[in-house]
Design brief:
Number of helices: 8
CATH architecture: 2-Layer Sandwich
Distance between the termini: 49 Å
Strand order of the largest sheet: 3-2-1-4-5
CATH class: Alpha Beta
Shape: globular
Helix content: 25-40%
Radius of gyration: 18 Å
Order of helices and strands: HEEHEHHEEHHHH
Strand content: 15-25%
Number of domains: 1
Length: about 210
């Protein structure tokens, strides 16, 4: 389970912020990036990497944590159009910088899930599988994931034919079948295969 060991290690540098993303892999919808500052001594028996939690438990934790005045947090949303414009990796890095900026504090150290980020505007380290090691990264992952899931459930009301409320934009069999029947909608990432295939002129799809 994640703990505060990384946060303690860098506490002398100033404010320590955990950063994590959700939604790099889907064919549709935004990339969502969470940033969280956890108070010294904070603990919670249920917080874990958001991917290891059920949707119901993530929603419960989101509601509980977002109402805790001792936790500072922000979520940055990078829409599908920007993902297509700059590529998903750069879009994720942009979202990571924006989420930290949205907190309105000067970080002493950012703990980022995964690898270090080139040209990141804040001091940081990358922690592979950080969402299962750092409590602030795990908390950020919950904020990012639940925010994105709620966006996709809302999108399902506008585009019910794709089933976004079930697969959240990931390339499931049902999603691919819906793409075949209906083609892409404005939420689809046109730079991603197989969405790109459906955006070609009809004569180029052989």
């Amino acid at each position: 389970m994640p703990d505060l060991e990384y946060e303690k290690t860098y506490a002398d540098l100033g404010i320590v912020i955990g950063v994590d993303e959700a939604g790099r892999g889907p064919l549709a919808g935004p990339v969502s990036v969470g940033a969280a500052i956890i108070p010294v001594g904070f603990s919670h028996p249920l917080i874990n990497d958001s991917k290891k939690l059920t949707e119901k438990r993530r929603e419960f934790l989101y509601d509980e944590l977002s109402q805790n005045s001792d936790i500072r947090w922000a979520v940055s949303i990078v829409e599908a159009a920007e993902v297509d414009e700059v590529n998903v990796l750069k879009a994720t890095h942009l979202g990571m910088a924006r989420a930290v900026k949205a907190l309105g504090v000067e970080p002493g150290m950012c703990l980022i899930d995964g690898l270090p980020v080139p040209n990141y505007p804040y001091p940081h380290i990358g922690i592979v599988k950080g969402d299962s090691k750092s409590l602030s990264i795990a908390t950020a992952s919950i904020f990012a994931k639940v925010t994105r899931d709620r966006i996709m459930r809302e999108a399902a009301l506008t585009y019910p034919e794709y089933g976004f409320e079930r697969h959240k934009g990931y390339g499931t069999k049902a999603h691919l079948e819906a793409l075949t029947r209906h083609g892409p909608c404005p939420l689809h990432r046109r730079s991603f295969q197989p969405v790109a295939h459906f955006c070609l002129p009809s004569g180029d799809q052989g």
